[in-house]
Amino acid sequence: MSYNPEVVTIGLGYIGLPTSALIAQNNIKVFGVDISPNVVNTINEGKIHIVEPDLDTAVAAAVKNNFLKAGLKPETANVYLIVVPTPFKGDHEPDISYVQAATETIIPYLKMGDLYIIESTSPVGTTEKMQELIYTRRPELKNKIFMAYCPERVLPGNVMYELVHNDRVIGGVDETSTGKAVKFYSQFVKGELHKTNARTAEMCKLVENSSRDVQIAFANELSLICDKAEINVWELIRLANKHPRVNILQPGCGVGGHCIAVDPYFIVSDYPMESRIIGKAREVNNYKSFWCAEKINQSKKEFQLKYNREPKIALMGLAFKPNIDDLRESPAKYIVQRVLQNANDEEYFIVEPNIKEHNIFKLTDYREAVEKADIIAFLVAHREFFELNISPERTVLDFCGVKRQY
Question: What is the pLDDT of residues 203-228, one digit of tens each?
């Protein structure tokens, strides 16, 4: 018996799989497509390959109830969602090749009246480019299918809730397409659905993450200034935020992830002369990671001179933000790599409590690492780290506020 899906999702990663599971929870048959046989097999067993609260139960139920299946190639449906990565290439230029490849896989399946939606973060004009591609390959479908752009706005660690309750911006290539997409999302989204055009929706996603990048850059720049001025940056920010119209974020060791560390480059690449603050924020946040690595190396040298031996060093965290397993564009991972490039005979304990193993780094339990290390560098504020009792004899480099004292 054929499956006959209503929706095909191309990409079953950190957004594609939760989105597929959510749609399936609403008794809509979804066929998810991924290039990884392991991912496909895992999902078809009712299991998940990523860490995200509540996702495991959603996938298990959707598969058991026959509303979610996965495969390596698309099937015929009525709605096609493109949810694949959009990294950058070369000199930070956006790479839409994944979006194009995903689109090309579904072109043979498209028919009159179908709805095609890009959720992948994309440069302005991408939806129109994919429209041109589809019409070039299938000219008989011109003006007979509906196309729109609708980016996600979710926080890793709370994706299943935010997919339902966050507002969404939906922009079609024409008003009819926008309306069709709004009707589709209204089946499973409780947040408000804001109508616009595709180009504005594409820019909106980039602007949202660029705004956050600029705000984080301000906090990170403060941390650099305060280090030189011998001021506790955590206390400074706490006090400054007592002002009724000031809300400074907390500094960290940089910015990572598939959105904030990438999306601003999509604007800078297309509008280099106009996006000076956005571009500078990227520089500041990238520099903060380099600075953290240099502080660790400096601390290592000071220990060697003081104790005439090589230190044992704990590098605490690899994920791009607290309490998740996602290492994409992680500043912590960059710092670990840079520190290890300068390694000699010192012993390193690399810690990431949210993953079991890594194909490059040998991982150590966080309690063992803190017990054995002479220098402890907190790179990510994972919840486990806040509970640690650290000997005053240890050198602590706290780049993310785990042990901040006011």
Answer: 999 999 999 999 999 999 999 999 99
- Are 123 and 202 contacting, i.e. CB atoms less than 8 angstroms apart? yes
Predicted local confidence at residue 2, as pLDDT: 66
pLDDT of 28-77, one tens digit each? 999 999 999 999 999 999 999 988 889 999 999 999 999 999 999 999 99
CATH-assigned architecture of domain 230-398: 3-Layer(aba) Sandwich (3.40)
Query: Using CA atoms, how far apart are residues 300 and 294, in angstroms rounded to an integer?
Result: 10
69, 180, 205, 333: which one is catalytic?
A: 205
What residues does CATH 3.40.50.720 cover in the chain? 7-191, 230-398
d(CA 403, CA 381): 9
The string of pLDDT tens digits covering residues 34-46 is 999 999 999 999 9
Q: What is the pTM of this model?
A: 0.89
Out of 150, 259, 292, 400, pick the active-site residue. Answer: 259
The candidate with the shortest Cα–Cα distance to 395, out of 303, 315, 309, is 303
Q: Is 259 one of the catalytic residues? A: yes
Query: What fold is seen in the domain 7-191?
Result: Rossmann fold (3.40.50)
